[in-house]
Design a protein that fits this description.
This protein has 377 residues and is an alpha/beta fold. It has 13 helices and eleven strands. The chain has a seven-stranded mixed beta sheet with strand order 2-1-3-4-5-6-7, sandwiched between helices. It has a four-stranded antiparallel beta sheet with strand order 9-10-8-11, covered by helices on one side. Strand 1, helix 1 and strand 2 form a beta-alpha-beta unit. Helix 6 packs across helix 10 and helix 10 runs antiparallel to helix 11. The protein is globular. This is Prephenate dehydrogenase. One of its GO terms (molecular function) is prephenate dehydrogenase (NAD+) activity. Belongs to the prephenate/arogenate dehydrogenase family. Pathway: Amino-acid biosynthesis; L-tyrosine biosynthesis; (4-hydroxyphenyl)pyruvate from prephenate (NAD(+) route): step 1/1.
Length: 377
Amino acid sequence: MSESTGTPTRAASPLAARVHGTVRIVGAGLLGSSIGHALSSRGVDVCLDDASPSQLRLAIDYGAGRRPRPDDDPSLIVVAVPPDVTADVIERELLQHPDAVVTDVASVKLEPLRTLQGRGIDLTHYIGSHPLAGRERGGAISARADIFVGRPWVVCRDEQTSAADLALVEGLALELGATPVEMTPEDHDRAVALVSHVPQLIASLLAGRFVDAPDGSLRLAGQGVRDTTRIAASAPELWVQILGANAEPVVDVLDALAADLSSVAAALRDPEAPGSRRAVADTIRRGNDGVERLPGKHGQNRRFEQVVVMVDDTPGQLGRLFGELGELEVNVEDLRLEHSPGAQFGLAEISVVPSALRRAVDGLEARGWKIASTTND
């Protein structure tokens, strides 16, 4: 496979910036239906197929595409099925549609590739890919055309991949508002183990501690713990397959994390011992440094400042806040809302570029908004 760059691919040609012909989507769940909605809204002919007749009917009823026809001649096939059957479906589609380009959107890339290679399948027209997008709830009913906008879409090409085939898969990503990123399957699987698969386990483990917690403790939960455990609502059946298919890279990260946890626990067992406080401080500081490296809006590694505004829990207040920020020429880079139980107001944490912080604070206060805190407090 090609060497990983970890950066967006070259600018696409006009041909690569659009999807042409019929697109066949196998799997009418969240990702398959979302791709169908996005392409159908752009006038692309989308035919859907799914092993579940009821899932297929639901996706079609919602407008994600049409039923397959015997005379379908797709130019592109997107396999969007669970990981444990991904290789089987890719093999079937390559054999049934030898002139089509086949891609899949499974969250693990190396295992299906090795399975297909082991079977001796001609993979000339196969390109593995993976959009880094999704929701906590799956199924056609949760599908949305905009979930790929601004998200990375990994494309795993090799030296056998033709320019035309690559353009079609990259064009799919670009048409849906995603950013194509070329990586090898090995690099992809190591990356998602760190930024997707282990975070899922950590969120689930932490949320699992709530099961036997006293009700009084859970009433104290704020936005921080909700943010930390949001993805714990994911489907166990799917994640058993994903984690099993990417076990080795996941275990590597878990082992390193377990060592970090042991070090912090040892320091906290005797907080007054020499070096204990430094160990805890270094752990928090390293987390600060890691968060700073996460790409923000438009994929930029850019630091923003935060201003927290108290917003009355009445209709129209949030819209008024955005409107007045617009009048102040302050762009909202990110937003997080928090409601305290029983309170008649919410807290809107707004991220802005550092140069706009003072203008936002002074302007909002002059318009009667109460500022709860800022980054500099």
